[in-house]
Design a protein that fits this description.
13-stranded parallel beta sheet, alpha/beta, about 475 residues, 15 strands, single chain, elongated
Length: about 475
């Protein structure tokens, strides 16, 4: 800022000239500044107008965004609704959905409550599927001891065959009367009041106990079940063994006998002519049989399925002394499916004449791949072999079997089904053996791999699966095969 000189004197001529020049320059600058301010004010007004327009446009965009977001929600809801409408589960006929529910109840008795609670359609199907309600579990935990709940189940089952499993220490007379018309009864432990009761429609009876006795039962207790075709007796009898079979049996199609006694010989002899399926678990019973049970040949002309082995007890039982005796007793030339759980040391193999004799065997369900050499020797016409893969020798066992088949052994072999077989999938030795088999035989060998051992009924405890919850392995093999993972 310019400061004037001393005000008591007049400016000199030079100071006047210089002042005029300075004023002229400042006036010129002032004019420029006024023009600049005018331009800036004009720009400000323009920007303010643009901001006003942008704010208005921004508000419009906010409204459009809200509208688009609402439409997104509507479209997503419509997609979900349309997806539900065309979902595969809606295209399944109600009859098929009902079958799915029935398979569910075979895994969990509470399935009717679960399936009928999903939606209105599923509840309608569940209520229209009597078999879904035909599986009852009577125990302190299930609530079926409540008469109203049990009656509701029975009403919804209508004419479907009832499968009732009773797990009670004390089965009362009233309970036996209520369920006298059932198709299948399973007791654990064995009831003490079976006598003096008739079960005119009972087809399958399962008695399961850790240590039971039949002594309290009358000789004709099973004859009060004229339609009985499936009888399962599972017990250890370590403290109270049966010395002799003293009970009459009606003609049976299927007989499971799990107990450490040779009394099964007397029992099977009664039903030998009609028996189609037989399962024996003799546990650690001493061999040979006592003198009271003479060894003799039992002819079973209709037997198609046979299972043997200590599946209900320790897997360390040595069957080397028992197998030759059972083999001598059973004459079953028509057996097509054999589930073999017998344990014989590999270092002490049984002679062929002392081993199982099933000349028409089609399906062999064995233990581990280590026994495959015996299978090739004993059952040259087998079509299907199922087994657990030995973790140490499995690859070599399977590759050797395929090579033997390539060389002409096991001419009828079609399928190898293997459990715990993850290590074999794509293994070079297995692939090479399969290529050679294809070249030599002009056909493919079907291999099914399972990573675990529980995907199918194979290799599970034969005596452990409940009542009608798993399809018998024999019919399972003949009807379908489950692909491996």
């Amino acid at each position: 800022m310019w400061v004037a000189p001393e005000s008591s004197r007049l400016p000199s001529r030079d100071e006047l000239a210089h002042g005029k020049d300075a004023i002229a320059a400042l006036e010129e600058e002032l004019e420029t500044l006024h023009a600049t301010v005018a331009n800036q004010l004009s720009r400000k007004g323009s920007i303010q107008e643009r901001l006003k327009a942008l704010r208005h446009e921004l508000g419009q965009l906010d409204d459009e965004i809200i509208g688009s977001q609402g439409r997104i929600s509507d479209v997503e809801n419509e997609i979900r609704e349309r997806s539900r409408w065309i979902a595969a589960i809606r295209r399944i006929p109600n009859e098929v959905l009902g079958e799915v529910f029935v398979w569910h109840v075979r895994l969990d008795w509470k399935a009717p409550l679960v399936d009928s609670s999903v939606c209105k359609t599923w509840r309608t199907v569940a209520l229209a599927t009597p078999r879904l309600w035909s599986f009852l579990r009577l125990s302190e935990e299930t609530g079926f001891l409540n008469p109203q709940l049990a009656q509701l189940w029975v009403q919804r089952a209508r004419a479907a065959p009832l499968h009732v499993h009773i797990n009670l220490e004390d089965v009362t007379e009233d309970i036996l009367k209520v369920y006298r018309d059932t198709y299948c009864l399973k007791f654990r432990p064995w009831p003490t009041r079976l006598q003096n009761h008739s079960f005119p429609h009972l087809s399958k009876l399962i008695l399961d106990h850790e240590d039971a006795t039949l002594d309290h039962l009358e000789r004709d207790v099973f004859m009060a079940m004229p339609n009985l075709r499936y009888l399962h007796l599972h017990w250890r009898m370590t403290h109270r063994p049966i010395v002799k079979w003293n009970w009459d049996l009606p003609p049976l199609d299927e007989f499971h006998f799990a107990g450490a006694t040779w009394a099964w010989i007397d029992a099977v002899e009664q039903v030998a002519g009609t028996l189609k399926k037989l399962a024996l678990d003799l546990g650690s019973v001493t061999a040979p049989p006592p003198a009271s049970i003479p060894i003799r040949t039992l002819n079973l002309p209709n037997l198609r399925y046979f299972a043997y082995g200590a599946q209900s007890q320790s897997l360390m039982i040595n069957d080397a002394a028992r197998v030759p005796i059972v083999t001598r007793i059973l004459n079953a030339p028509s057996v097509e499916v054999f589930e073999d759980h017998s344990l014989v040391p590999l270092e002490l193999p049984l002679p062929v004449e002392d081993n199982w004799q099933f000349p028409n065997l089609k399906s062999y369900l064995g233990q581990t791949s280590r026994e495959l050499a015996d299978v090739k020797l004993l059952y040259p016409n087998v079509q299907t072999i199922a087994f657990l893969v030995d973790p140490e020798t499995g690859v070599l066992d399977v590759a050797t079997l395929i090579d033997d088949a390539s060389d002409g052994a096991l001419d009828a072999l079609e399928i190898l089904e293997m459990f715990q077989a993850s290590a074999l999938v794509g293994h070079p030795m297995i692939e090479q053996a399969l290529r050679r088999y294809r070249e030599e035989r002009g056909k493919d060998l079907y291999l099914i791999f399972h990573s675990g051992r529980d995907e199918t009924p194979y290799q599970q405890c034969f005596f452990g699966f409940p009542c009608c919850y798993h399809q018998p392995i024999g019919s399972y093999l003949s009807e379908s095969l489950v692909d491996g993972e």
